[in-house]
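Bench notes, afternoon.
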Amino acid sequence: MAQPGVRGIYSDAKFKQAKENIDIVKKTTPELGSLMKLVTDKDELAKYHHPKAQGAVVTSIAARVWPYKLVAHILQELLVSSELRGTFNLQTLTPAESIEPTGDGKWLVKTSRGDIIARKVALATNAYTSHLLPDFSDLIVSKEHPSKKTKHPAAPRLTSRQVPCRGQMSALIPLPSISGPNRLRTSMGFEGDGLDDYLIQRPDDKGGHLMFGGGRTHGKSIGVTDDSVFDETTAAYLRRELIDAFELPERSDEKLEMQAVRQWTGIMGFSRDEVPWVGPVPGKEGVFVAAGYTGHGMPNTWLSGKAVASMVTASLGGEDVVVGVEAARKATGLPRAYQVSTERVAKAMAGDSVEERDEAELSRDQRIQETEGRLH
């Protein structure tokens, strides 16, 4: 379903970055640039439900989809397809434990239910990629930075190319001021120093629930792989934050929270250079990867997966890997920046780690909060 998208910007650094990004898009891809604008007028920001933002990036055409239903439908069609004649084999609840070269150009995939030998292996394992490809992870545990004073315990210093990060989500019953005829007409984002929240409202016939996620600064997230529990402090933030952010009339009750019908967590894969890794893995002929979406899987996974599938198909057909990669890139529009290469690996490892970058942003947010506290 198509609809507009609005991303509120809540810090000087993020506002500057957003303006620069829009200018680049308008210059390099005018057709796409014509669909977005940077709003700074306070009345217009209030209309878009971002009264406290410095600005907002408004995209005239965005989209929403229920990924689980889509993927489940695709898998069902593959399983019953008469054209495949039963050759599609889906093994659920069967984690891959390791992959090893067999010595004859193939790969041994070890699972909890037995081993598989394959000519080609495609990893769509996102945050868990380094478990199967140790080369994609360099974890170094260090002491907490002396200036770091965050709301959550210190996590190991992570210098890997792809790092797990636990995100938290909630399905909230909207208050009257944001229900029925007053419901949201756009998807929404909230971006600032230490802020990266996201929101979409389900149709009224589905309860009109506010699907609100984020709040990573309120609980431990970077380096966390356990999605069996959720953080209560983060959950409380999600239940309350929209009331203040939207300046809803109900906010006069300081203890008021939106009721959550569901609260859960999920593990994202954060890339060291903030860009997905898609393509053949250097030094491991026959292994391909599509992972590291850094919290932006919805606009990236679909064509990244298609690109890798095209690369694998070409490779199975005996086509040169470089030729196959270039053909897949042209067919899907895969950005060159997404492609895996030894040069990109070296460049990424020379920069800040995911945790260092996250820590710097949180520290900047804390300094701003302390300054505002002194001013007020």
